[in-house]
Protein 1
Amino acid sequence: MDMNFSPEDEAFRKEVREFIASALPPHLKKKAEADAEFEHDEVMEWHRILAKKGWAAPHWPKQHGGPGWDAARRFIFSAELELSGAPRLSPFGLAMVGPLIIQFGNAEQQKRFLPDILAGTKVWCQGYSEPNSGSDLASLQLRAEDKGDHFLLNGQKTWTTYAQYADYIFCLARTNSEAKKKQEGISFILCDMKSPGVTAKPFLTTGGTPAFCETWFENVKVPKENLVGEMNQGWTYAKALLGHERTLVAGIGISTRALLRAKRIAAETLAGGRPLLEDPVIQNEIARIEIRLEALKMANYRALAGAQLGHAPGPESSILKLRGTEIQQACFDLLMKLMGENSLTWFNEPGVVPEREEWIPSAFNYMRAATIYAGSNEIQKNIISKMILGLPSA
Amino acid sequence: MDFELSEDQKMLVDTVQSFVRKESPLERMRKLRDDEVGWDRAVWKQMGELGWLGVMFPEDAGGSAMSFVEMGLIIEQLGTTLVPEPVTPLVVAGSALASAGSPAQREQFLAPAIAGATSLAMACEEIQSRFDVRCVHTKGEKSGGGYKLSGQKRWVQNGHAADTLLISARTSGKDGDNSGVSLFIVDKDAPGLTRTSVKQMDGKHGAMLKLDGVEVGADRVVGKLDGAAAILDAALDLGAAAACCEGSGMMQAVLMMTRNYLTERKQFGRAIGSFQALQHRCVDMFVETELAKSTAILAMIKAQETDVSERQRAVSVAKVQLAESGGFVTRQGIQLHGGIGVTDEHDVGLYFKRMQVLCALFGDDLFHSRRYAGLPSFRKHVS
């Protein structure tokens, strides 16, 4: 048994770290330093820098522009990016619709869409959830009527992150309302956001930032060539995507960075004349979360070593999203606690609280989404209950 | 990075698993609870003959010089049915003999234990010491060519049955000093040694020791005089790692037992495992079991690490996680069984009790959390 990355992988880690340090433009570095929220165009700016280096899509096959890394390198790359505080690239093109088009799309679609996704020249958003279809996603009602040479879309999507900036939206749409099972009447359709009849309106999140939108479709014409794969097979495709990159979902780098931040605040903040970090109660509070993270990291390493050998994801990989997001939240709870009354701050001018702390309350708020998006943790538990423990259906 | 078992390790695990299933189901442990020794010398001998007791020990003592990984894998399997033989006391005392003992000491005391002919015990816990091996009030005074030991030791695992005991004593310096702690080999019937067998919650026995001027020769000092603190730290870390491996096996058993109960037990006309409130609890048990399994592997790999702070970091992570996960899994195991889970006739309570004992031995979570926060690595933060 060996829990170390190979010397070659460690050299790769160093290369990644050095690249990020040198390639991240100063204005983004300054924001990263403060853990500030990046504007969308800043995210895309970083996307294009990574794309130029050939590192924007680590998990894409080489022939489509991926760097050809194995699971360990993809893990290292992802963790180093998280640790650096650099903008996190939008997953909708690179991690979701891109791989789906690679796996299920035709050659024409691959040629038409993949290069722009890779280069960061076109922005994508995801049309899955609807106001009445959240955890029960298969009940979705966005209608796509077959009109011969095109589909006619009518309905509404929600939580469409980045829809306000997006060039395209990929949708799960109902193409057969008579199917025996609701999962069987769903197709995977790509839609130009500039099509007449599409409207997107952003929500303000509790974090005080715009992230996701509501998106309406009113008699939107979508050419037939934008159907991915076969009619009524959309659910199967979307599900196949869920198994992708399961070794990266724990957010080890995010939590590691947050804990380093927490310790810095604890070391620099005095209470009763001594640093918080010297207080045994606070040490214990930090240590407990750090130990939970170490345990998760080991579980992640086990999943990673399995993936390296080409094994199907084992039971340990199913806990990564569940526990990873809980720990991310615990880290931000801890940060808020360490800030004390400074945690009251809300988008103030510099000087009210230390610059590095100003964004924590916003991030703390948005962090609540982590246990909800990509299949809420309760849905994850339903899946584990059924697929791994084999408990009877309700 | 590789967590696959080698062919040899797989074979070892298979052999232990099949022994556990066929020869040591939980009923055996249940029966031995009422026995004054609490384990079976014939089975111990068999384990010795199979080579299990020597996997981590050097060849000159009859071992096979593999590593604690192999020992941990064995202990994990033995944990699944609470096999009661004193393997962990052998790991703790034996590792001190293996790392610091003279060739003669190894031959005389470690070799027969590895063969399953004798058993060992490590006695370093005292009423005030609270897992700190430097906080030792038992005194070792020069006497003739050797030493005279006086003091008391508590909750010595396998202390009631061991043929040979390793006993720590202060030979110089003051309470808490790193230097001045020595480790002595003492025979079970040494004059002046009183062993009182005490019952533990987990059905095992331990011993309270009273040392009233116990004479030991100079050849019975393990390692350097005054230099045992680091040896004891290392030995107790192996004990903690062993507890994590045993606990991991136990959690896997409790999870399966509970999962099966949820599918069989019917209320309101259906299997209670179809209720989401119980499903999610069972999933939480699964998550904790996987995390504890992961940190048990961490402990297996790092328990013999020569970089002390790296070893301590890994072992403390694993031991705290054992308390978190093991505490949760065994408590929820009882809860999901309902009333029957609180009866002595059901097995789940046996795991609960053993887990509680494991959590209290070799440093509890408070000790290890504090130790973890005191390590240099904890002070690393972005400047």
Note: Chain A has a mean pLDDT of 95.
Protein 2
Amino acid sequence: MARLLEVKDLKVQFKTREGPVHAVDGVTFHLDAGETLGIVGESGSGKSVTSLSILRLLPMPPAQLVNGTIIYQDKDLADLPESEMRAVRGREIAMIFQDPMTSLNPVLNIESQLIEPLQLHLNMSKNEARQRAIELLEAVGIPDAPRRLRAYPHQFSGGMRQRVMIAIAIAANPKLLIADEPTTALDVTVQAQILELIARLRRDLGTAVILITHDLGVVAGVTDRIIVMYAGKIAEEASTDELFANPRHPYTLGLLASIPHLDEAVTEDLQTIPGSPPDQLHPIAGCPFQPRCPFVLEKCKTYPPYMAVGPNHRAACWVDVTDPAEQERASKRGFIPFRQIRHGFAGESSPAGMSNA
Amino acid sequence: MRRYLIRRVVQAVFMLFVMSIVFFTLLHLIPGGPDAVIGANNPHITPIQRAAIRHRFGLDQPVPIQYLSWLGNALHGDFGISFSNSLPVAQELAARIPATLELFLTALGFALIMAILLGVTAAVKQYSITDYLITVLSYIGISMPVFWFALLLQELFGVQLGLLPVFGRTAADTTSFTNLEIFEDYVVHLILPAIVLSLLFIATWSRFLRSSMLEVIKQDYIRTARMKGLGARQVFFRHALRNALIPLVTVVAISFGGIAGGAIITETIFAWPGLGRLFLVAVNFPDYPTLLAYLLFGAASVIFFNLVADILYGVIDPRIRYS
Amino acid sequence: MATVQSDQLLTQFQPNEITPELARKRRSQFRIIFDRFTRNKVAVAGFVVLAVLLVAAVFAPIITGQTSTYDPPNDPNLSIALSGPIPGHPLGTDDLGRDELARMLFGGRVSLAVGILTALLTILIAVTVGSLAGYYGGWVDMVMMRVTDAFLSVPLLVVLFVLARTFSDGSVPSIVILIAAFEWPSVARVVRGEFLGLKEREFLLAARTLGANDLRLMVRHILPNAAGPIIVAATLVVGDAIITESVLSFFSFGVRPPTSSWGSMLNNSRDFISSDPLLLYLPGIAILITVLCFNLMGDGLRDALDPYMTER
């Protein structure tokens, strides 16, 4: 597959009175055409900032792109003039945001918001654009599209608004769709529908997708590959199956343990990762996960190299968490060896071959 | 919406009714009230003449009775006879409204255009020299006594430069003027008073719009608009300005309510034959029937335009539906 | 990011029971506000200018005695009327030959006194009404807010002119009462809002269970927490009142001769604009600068007190 996007050593900081906040701190990853990549991490891990920097949508100041390249096809988006960047936004790369309640302009009707990218990027006439807009609304599953075109955002439910937002994003047939926590603000039942819609559109349109979420359960059935981020850095990267089958970073272990399962007895406690998210204003030396990590060692004071630990699998950790001796050591610090995951997650993918227990 | 409207109108009418009582009582009980005015300018008046005048204006009745008869007449549009020139007060007021409206509408229209221009510019170029300059100017506009500004303009453009007329609404004699000249004459007479009257509005509205724009620009839907690849102009004017203008519309509507008090200073200094001048003459006389009518007119316009502002807000913002 | 925000939140939500630790925290909170204010150079400049003006007004008799041939400002001397700047009269004289510098200083006394006294009286009324309405709620709130609405529906200048013509004797106190009578409603709303927000907070519940009565709760516990917005409002009222007084005096409804304020000096100067424009410029500039400084200081204070203010 052709390489679509290559992000290298991306560093983004926020200037504050107390000093710079290292929101994204040396992130490197790539994406092929048509591929679906999941970026997972808790809030503040830098996943949203990473995605917003690709389209340069962060407010600058206070945000500042300190370092790195963002090669999209053959252009470096990190240093493209704003006028050329506008031709990329919406046309080449489009984005769906977290909160559909606030992402649509309240004083413009759906039609005017939906035909903008069509007129802008595809040079459609107003009538052509209106026709296409109806098709788009139907494609994202909004019934009675011709009439709903005239409606205002507040007349839609949250799930419906997110569908409209998706229609806007795919309007100009972008090659890459970034979905930044597209389901977080929605009801559980609606979440699944939206994810399914994204997956279907990806299949039908052949669009590459970056799906950003704090919930590993969300990405399980949808993505080809997953990046786990912590404190502005990539902790682990692997194909989806490999990551679930063979997680190698203690933070990933924690994330996996905190996914609720429908088939588990309700009496079992859901595990959480103890401690609080890192302070990126005053980053500690070495691995940022140290204070919360049951596997922590003295040498964690030096940041671990980003090592290949398997085929297409890399992790930034000194410890081999699959080693029973290490697990024994960690269990004294409260580590509960995580349960095997036998029945898969939200989607159809069913990771197999669990080795530890 | 309808129920909300009815409730607001009933409230407004009630408020006005209460105010009429307060104003009436105030004006009739204060030392130097209507009674004291009779004959004040004429020392040779006899007690019999005095009693006749008191009777003619109904001042020999108890105050509540006076109020009720005043109210009965007022409800029919009769606000009594002016003390100063014995003409019907309602007629006098009505005759002055066009001149004041002309000045007020011109000033507010000009102010709105300037405020949008300055406010948007300041917001788009936040923290630039232009932004600071606009901020400084609006601070000065807010802090400047309007009458002093008027005197300065009069002195500069009228006296020193001789460019613009500084008094009145038209030239003294327009009989030989062509239609175009009459129009020109109106316009040149309007310029200075309109600028003076618009100063405070420009200063406050542009600051208001600036902060409203800055607030809107932070919203998620602006990010969505940028995500589509729209240029700065479209993002600002199509997506941001519309939202930022919604709160300003109510501020503008409320400003209309100040028509009774707003033009007093400007009209006096530029000898503009409007409501403000009528009022000032009435205060100095003091002409109580006119004052009472004027106070109520002022309160009514404030209350009415506050109501208009509320309703407009609901009409303009598709999100708001009163229940 | 997250930690920065939570720090800012902490500075806002601090309880009010005076333990030594909290007293220290509160001092540091004052310190933060003070630091933020002093970082705002424009607001500090406004403060400094005002301080100078105040000193000049207070020591007007001494200053005039030092810098010019001191005639009591109300003593006419027609032989030097409208002189323009001459030795002994650095700013010239007015139409009656009175020293303009002395008149500016003594006029400033009146203007500043009206401004500051009005703000104090306004706060007194506004805090009384606003705190009762906000604290007791219910029908007390209903009645008081309707009265406030009524005052806000009055066309300000119209009523002021009428009342000044009938009630006022042209003395400073009567003008202060008049202006304050129409300045308080908007401030009362601010106070009411603060009280509404604060009365449900935990520290109050704690104080009440400890047996504090209503008055004590309002004065000792809520009021100090609402002080910030009230001080800001007061600062802005001063500027407003100075302008209003100047308008009243300009239309001869304000202070009566021989007492003069900057506003009445402007009224007086109208007839002599062409012979001595200084008489027109000086009082106007004085009002402009004074009001400007109060506005800048008020906005600076508001920004310093706003925990969500973004840094420039």
Note: Confidence is low (pLDDT under 50) at residues 340-357 of chain A.
